[in-house]
Amino acid sequence: MTTPRAGTAVLPGLGRWLGAAGRFLSWWRDALASWLPSRWRVLFGLAAERLLLVPQDDQVALLRAGQAGLEPLATVPLPLTTADLDAVLSPRLAGLPRWSLLPAVQVLRRPLLLPGAAAERLRQVVGFEIDRQTPFTAEAVYFDARLTRRRPDGQIEAELVVVRRQGVDRALEALGPLAAGLAGLDVADAHGQPLGVNLLPPAGRVRGAGPARRWNLVAAVVAVLALAFAGWQVLANRRAAADAFAAQVERSAASAREVAAKRQQLVDLVEGAKFLQARRAARPTTIEVLDELTRLLPDSTYLEKVSIEGDRLLLIGLSPQAPGLVKVLEGSRLWTSPALTGALQMDRRTRLDRFSMTAQLAGPKPPSNTAPAARRNANAG
């Protein structure tokens, strides 16, 4: 015992889906075409028109079959070639698919009741019913089937149409060279209208490039161009987005560099301020210098000018003991190397010596200033 492969179960389901999709598209196309004027339907190839060739003794009648019914065109004698037929017809009529029409007396029609699933492969299904429904074998006839009604219970009503091969062959021989260009072989009903079947085998049918196929080709080209344009537009949008993102990143990078430069500038300013503060903290303040001078200079000495320029101290004043001031100021920890500059001059009004003295500021802060800071650090700890 062999088990069927998975593909055999999938393909029938796929075929049913494809068949349903094809029927929906055909219905949708016909529904849209019904809203168009008849001239537009003919122009766009949406009108189901055919050129029927009906043999009549030594002549052939030309009929145009459309939605409005049958329209007689002309009757031409046989034999007739394809070039002769094209010369008789207009270019639009010459481009219609060519069918032959058999009279109703030559065919056998049998109604059939089949399951709904048979609608997908109706012609193949009815091919197995020929032996039971007709007195002929499948090899002795040409046949086709048409769907007439779908019942509410899911079954379908179909009709089997059969014609003997000898009758079809005689009809095709009557047409002569025109038989090679037929797209189908239809049957007339009781009212003379085409039944809507094709008795020609699929291998013997001529598939011409009708207007609908040309429009489909144009639509396919337009679709490809639209798809290419859409892809190009998407690529252009991506590139524009990438350029905008790169510009945004560049602006962000420029802002970051500017912020980094300002931060570095601020750090430099803070470091410079710390450096200057440290330099100032390493030297005594002006108040400390004045207090030290007041403490060391004798009461008979008067100062006219006290100047501090950087780490240089300049003193100008009057004193009766000017030469001895150098020794007096040497004992301070706030400056070093006190020395007189220039010659001493007698002031006529006070009879005191005018002196000019310089010193170099140096040394740590006095204990009076460092003690409070030490106490604050101790408290913080």
TrEMBL record:
It comes from Pseudoxanthomonas spadix (strain BD-a59). Gene3D superfamilies: 3.30.420.380. The chain crosses the membrane at residues 215-235. Keywords: Membrane, Transmembrane, Transmembrane helix. Residues 360-381 are annotated as: Disordered. The keyword Metal-binding does not apply. The keyword Transmembrane applies. InterPro entries: ATPase_NBD, Extracell_DNA_Util/SecSys_Comp, PilN. This is General secretion pathway protein L.
